[in-house]
Each structure stands twice: as structure tokens, then as C-alpha cells.
Design a protein that fits this description.
- This protein is mainly beta.
- It has a single domain, classed as Lipid/polyisoprenoid-binding, YceI-like (Lipocalin, Beta Barrel), CATH 2.40.128.110.
- It contains one helix and eleven strands; from the N terminus they run ββββββαβββββ.
- The radius of gyration is 18 Å and the shape is globular.
- The two termini are 18 Å apart.
């Protein structure tokens, strides 16, 4: 991307959220959030197609509304936050697929494993806030298999039910602020 025309956008964490969902005992879904994250995208002017996207989130900020479970997720049995404190994503393509729809592809790194992922993006639009700042909103969704990233802990109940599902649904709502 030509730096002369590149526009930088930075995530506004006050108006963004990173949520995930996973099956528990195959019968219900547990939701969680990461409360601390950062990201930016570079665009060619105000056109988002082909934007370059970088995103990180802090494992220690995981919140499933149950502190014992959160501590287990931070432990070496799952994310190993002490050794690998961040999850990162770097885009490889951002392609328009419809009026307000994009396909986002990139490399996701969890622990020491990097794999390509594909995510769906819906552009919510852009608007000026009360202070004259230009904001752009996106909803990103997709699914990954946790075992692909070395999150292989398994538990089985006495009755033979799987405790944690393999597929993780991602739902990320982000608002970016255009930088001057």
C-alpha cells in the first residue's frame, strides 16, 4: 500500500467488544469476552477494500463470568497466558463480497501456533461523532477449531459427555477511529 495515501484507523475500545462462544457438555453454550485488545487498519484513502489489519488481544483479560473457569483458561492447560500473553491476527486479504460485506483472511496466532483463518465482515457504516472524529463500524464473525491452535485440553464426564466443544464461534464488534 502506498504510504502517501494510506489512512490509519485505530480501534476505539470503548465502543468495541470481542466475544466467543463454545459448547459446554454439548447441550448449552458458554460465552466469554476478552476485555483488553488493540488493533488498527490501514486503508487506501477511505476505501476499506484491501485494508491491512493488525489485531492483538490480552489473554489475561478473558472473562467468562466465572473466575475459576477464567483462571483455568489462562493456565498451561489452555492458553498458557504466562508464556503466551497475547493472541494476534494479521490480515492477508480484505475483499469486498457485497454492498456492505467483506471476506477477511489472515494469520491467527494462538500460543505458538499460526494458522490461516477466514472471517466474514459486515460493514456497519461510518459517521462523525460529537467531536468531529470519523468512526467506522464492523461486525466480524467466524469459527475456528481450538485444537488447531494447540488448545487440546479435553474433559469427559462420568456419563461420557464432552465438557468443552472444539469449535469456537467468534463475534467481534469493532469501531475504528480515523487518525488525522
Amino acid at each position: 500500500m502506498a504510504t502517501e495515501t494510506a489512512t490509519k484507523w485505530v480501534i476505539d475500545p470503548m465502543h468495541s467488544e470481542v466475544q466467543f462462544k463454545v459448547k459446554h457438555l454439548v447441550i448449552s453454550t458458554v460465552s466469554g469476552f476478552f476485555k483488553s485488545f488493540a488493533g488498527e487498519l490501514l486503508t487506501d484513502g477511505d476505501d476499506f477494500e484491501n485494508a491491512e489489519i493488525d489485531f492483538t488481544l490480552d489473554i489475561d483479560s478473558i472473562d467468562t463470568n466465572q473466575s475459576q473457569r477464567d483462571e483455568h483458561l489462562k493456565s498451561a492447560e489452555f492458553f498458557d497466558a504466562a508464556t503466551y500473553p497475547k493472541i494476534s491476527f494479521k490480515s492477508t486479504s480484505f475483499t469486498k463480497t457485497g454492498d456492505d460485506e467483506f471476506a477477511l483472511k489472515g494469520d491467527l496466532t494462538i500460543k505458538d501456533v499460526t494458522k490461516p483463518v477466514s472471517l466474514d465482515v459486515e460493514f456497519g457504516g461510518s459517521a462523525a461523532d460529537f467531536y468531529g472524529n470519523t468512526k467506522a463500524g464492523f461486525e466480524i464473525s467466524g469459527k475456528i477449531n481450538r485444537k488447531d491452535f494447540g488448545l487440546t485440553w479435553d474433559g469427559v464426564t462420568e456419563a461420557g459427555s464432552i465438557v468443552v466443544g472444539e469449535d469456537i464461534k467468534l463475534l467481534i464488534n469493532v469501531q475504528f477511529a480515523k487518525q488525522a
